[in-house]
Amino acid sequence: MKNKKKVLKNKKILLGVAGGVAAYKSVDLVRRLKDEGASVTVIMTDASKNFITPLSLEIASENRVCSGIFDDPMSHINLPREADIMLIAPATANIIGKFANGIADDLLSTCFLSFKGKVVIAPSMNWRMYDNPIFQENLRRLTAHGVIQAGPDRGTLACGEEGIGRMADVSEIIETIKSAFSKKDFFKKKIIVTAGPTREYLDPVRFLSNRSSGKMGYAVARACIRRGAEVILISGPSCLEQPHGLKSFFRVETAQEMKNAMFKHLHETDVVIMAAAPADFSPEKKEKTKINKTDKLLVNLRNTPDILSEIGKLKRRPLLVGFAAETGKRLDRAKEKLIQKNADIIVFNNVTAAGSGFDVDTNEITIIRKNKEVSLPLTTKDAAAEAILDAVSELLKRVKCII
Ligand code: PMT
Known about the structure:
The structure is a single chain. The protein is built from 13 helices and 22 strands. By secondary structure, the protein is an alpha/beta fold. It has two domains: 170 residues, Rossmann fold (3-Layer(aba) Sandwich); 203 residues, CoaB-like (Rossmann fold, 3-Layer(aba) Sandwich). Strands 13-12-9-14-17-18-20-21 form an eight-stranded mixed sheet, with helices on both faces. A six-stranded parallel sheet has the order 3-2-1-4-5-6, with helices on both faces. Helix 8 crosses helix 9. Ligand PMT binds next to helix 9, helix 11 and strand 17.
């Protein structure tokens, strides 16, 4: 299962580490890239060795670390020739300045000039340097030539000041790399994704909910972004980090709030993917104060709005993908949901199978369409999301379904 269908599997990444304080994060970056199935060759600038030792990166990458331009006279040609992508993290003002002006006076800058593929940079520096118009001109020049920029973030900087210049999170950098390798078959498509549970309150402190973590929906949102879509994520309560590159993010609590957020944006949407697990029932009455403990409490419940069905009933509607969380191999029930809710795709999800369903990183799904079904073995939620998007992409080519 490990590494299966991962976007970065077997990709060769040439990682340039320049001399900034964020260089210490490159060990984690290398490990995480390797967890994704990539192989990493590191080039260190001389300045970066003031912040981190070559040995740390050699151990993390399980690969030699290159540095001197004359250690191997052809390395500035051979290293780029063997790489699928170049990543510079941290990218200092100095290395960005060299890249932008065609200066090739060390191994990293010569490799950049001779590399033919995509380059991602993760700038990192003090906010004053980042704001400097000369630096900004260099940055614009590079991005105009197709160099992809990840970050920087705003926050506390090494000098203790607040401002823009922190190197992007490792997870954001990895998402940017994945995006660089992804096809853009959803370019400019507008997609609403729902994720997570809802909470239906009995009183100000107690609610009905379920075990959804949001992992499946967030994985779908990330895959949509990678493939070029403009994504609105409507999320119930979840501890997960917001995916980078969302068009909008709405945090909701109840199924009614999820419905309100959905219908506010539905008119401008090509595809809706409902991976959320909204509660089906809500207490008829929400008490204003905490209910006192009693021996017995009877609660009347009523149905929450069935958002998927309501969209399914619209005359003109987006392409509609729902999930069916079933306890057991109840494909029959999932197929019923496809018809009853008038969805285009239902993703059957056996939530009682080991490693599948709620609050795990993997899922076992069957993608059901009216005349086709595809079962996937247990796989990561990221890979499941990609497979769901493949099915959506195929349908989108055939039908025109914008409201
Ligand atoms: O969040 P994770 O921890 O990663 O877990 C993932 C998941 C198990 C929540 C996800 O894979 C999943 O199966 N989501 C659907 C859960 C669900 O509510 O299934 P359902 O069979 O009860 O509902 C069918 C469809 O109707 C779903 O698309 C659901 O979003 C939608 N629905 C349900 C209730 C409701 N009131 N309105 C709805 O629109």
